[in-house]
Amino acid sequence: MKNKFLFIVLILLFIGWNGKAQTQNKVVINANEGKYTISRHIYGHFSEHLGYGIYGGIWVGEDSPIPNTRGIRKDVVEALKALQIPNLRWPGGCFADEYHWQDGIGPRDQRPKMINTHWGGLVEDNSFGTHEFMDLCEQLGCEPYICGNVGSGTVEEMSKWIEYMTFDGESPMANLRKQNGHPEPWKITFFGVGNENWGCGGDMLAEYYADMYRRYAVYCRNYGQNRLYKIAGGPNASDYNWTETLMKKIGNKMNALSLHYYTVPKNWNDKGSATDFDETEYFITIDKAFFMRELIEKHTAIMDKYDPAKRIALAPDEWGGWYNVEPGTNPGFLYQQNTLRDAILAAVTLDVFNQHCDRVKIANIAQMVNVLQSVILTDKEKMLLTPTYWIYDFYKVHQDATMLPLSVACARYESQGKSIDAVSASASRDKNGKIHISLTNTDPNKSQTVSCELLGAKAKTVSGRILTANKISDHNTFDNPKTVSPKDFKDVKLTGENLSLTLPAKSVIILEIQ
């Protein structure tokens, strides 16, 4: 009878008095073994001439009643500065390979107009060009990441753009920059030699693009003290042959190889709704987010064959959730809402990047404002912060911190005969010695108890913040902008080298240990 009673008690402890499984999860953090730095550039953003991503979202013009600094929205800049965004990729995307930079300089009322054939077929008036973009980066305090036109541009055009921006001396392009109001050259580090050259950037074969890259890269010159970090147009998701070909043919001529992967719950013809989805679709989305781990590891394995010293970075410079546009909006504007699901998607993906920071050195979520998985949405003078914004706010503590190796033994979240990790995690130590741990519970139904062992750490205090909501489809609107917003998290215990806490269902937590 005694043994039977003990058995019942154990079952109750496992199931929990509320009928929901309270599974024990173990995270072991090697706090004294950090070797690699989590580059701040993993937390980069992307802004393309697409829908309201630039116009209305960032650029409103100097005569706008919306508060601005030289035409750039003050509210958006202030919100982004709070994230400490490290770099911004521009002007595309597919738009980059039909963009001719000389159309976007000089007096705005004299700039030629063009048709944005990729995104909605609307007229692009080029009022936001090189000078405006560089002004935006200076206001944000971030580095520019410029993507050059290989698809429809020329070697001469790309070469002159770099000269225009970075040459400090006497030359036609440097003089033109000075004539247009910027006497000093800009500092440009990140430069993409083309974009999606397997698709909208030229529909090229890997071998052909490798030859094109060799030619274009020669004329991407370093002027004065400026040194370009050349990023080759990399593979589409699991196109491992593309990576193999480029590493073999141009590995010694590039600094990084891009990678594009979008999380699409259904298919490219019907991607699924951003807000109206069931748990099955939620599971598929997060399962596909975890697929980033396999992509990173398989592309890294190929890169390791040719670059064992890891000199060349892997750069996932377009990633995020892609759903059907919001009903009633222009299909070419890619405007979608952003839910708690997207916050969890972002947390899982950033954990993968943090854990693989030996190879992943730069990444860019697509996109920053009003397009795809945005951190900010605007509507005329109104602005709101999305759930994804708060993940970047949580995770900014990892920027340029030392990645702490960890192991996770966790429960599985099951759906439709498949399962994924219920707990995602990453950890780092910053320059002041503070340890930060990111923890995500992907299960929308069950809380997860977590025991966290900090090997080699002398911890005294712990504090935290949490992002969760009532439903996985909850999102912020202009009428209710704080439906999904962070709160302090105090339900965590610290005893020596051990932490214990319970992750509520569908939640993301950031802990700070001192």
Task: Give me the secondary-structure category.
Answer: alpha/beta
The count of β-strands is 28
Radius of gyration: 24 Å
- Helical amount: 25-40%
Morphology call: globular
Main sheet overview: 8 strands, parallel
- Provide the residue-averaged pLDDT: 95
Strand content: 25-35%
Strand order of the largest sheet: 13-12-11-10-9-6-3-14
- How far from one another are the termini? 48 Å
Question: Can you tell me about this structure?
Answer:
- The chain has 514 residues and is of the alpha/beta class.
- The protein has helices spanning 2-15, 74-82, 130-140, 155-166, 172-179, 206-218, 240-250, 279-306, 340-355, 387-395; strands at 23-30, 37-38, 44-46, 68-69, 72-73, 87-90, 114-115, 123-124, 143-148, 190-193, 229-232, 256-263, 313-321, 364-366, 376-379, 382-385, 401-403, 406-409, 412-415, 418-421, 423-429, 435-441, 448-455, 462-467, 487-489, 492-495, 498-503, 507-513.
- Strands 13-12-11-10-9-6-3-14 form an eight-stranded parallel beta sheet. The protein has a seven-stranded antiparallel beta sheet with strand order 2-17-21-22-28-24-25, covered by helices on one side.
- It is globular and about 65 Å long.
List the helices and strands and how they pair.
Layout: H1 2-15, E1 23-30, E2 37-38, E3 44-46, E4 68-69, E5 72-73, H2 74-82, E6 87-90, E7 114-115, E8 123-124, H3 130-140, E9 143-148, H4 155-166, H5 172-179, E10 190-193, H6 206-218, E11 229-232, H7 240-250, E12 256-263, H8 279-306, E13 313-321, H9 340-355, E14 364-366, E15 376-379, E16 382-385, H10 387-395, E17 401-403, E18 406-409, E19 412-415, E20 418-421, E21 423-429, E22 435-441, E23 448-455, E24 462-467, E25 487-489, E26 492-495, E27 498-503, E28 507-513
Parallel strand pairs: 1-23, 3-6, 3-14, 6-9, 9-10, 10-11, 11-12, 12-13
Antiparallel strand pairs: 1-18, 2-17, 4-5, 7-8, 15-16, 17-21, 19-20, 21-22, 22-28, 23-27, 24-25, 24-28, 26-27
Helix pairs in contact: 4-5, 6-7, 7-8, 8-9, 9-10
